[in-house]
Amino acid sequence: MADKTPPQKSNNPYATRIDPTKEGLSQDQMHFIRQVELEQWKKRTSKLRTRNVVTGLAIGALVLGIYGYTFYSVSQERIMDEIDEEAKRARMQGPKTGAN
Q1: Full-prediction pTM beyond 0.90?
Q2: d(CA 54, CA 48)
């Protein structure tokens, strides 16, 4: 399994993570951090939006396919028509009594 402990502090200044609330950062540095985070958020959001659109279109196509197939199969269903015809023939051929 992966080790869950945080990596040891790096000697490279570009690889260290900082906590903006604890570090003494200037306004320019905080502004730059916010800009970078916003750009990263926009990039992730556009990817997610594309995935969501593709997923929505796939689900919509599936639903429309099932809906269309249901109408197609019901329109070809002749069982109820055949049963009605048989019942009509049976009534016509049956004995005529006063109750009929």
Answers
A1: no
A2: 10
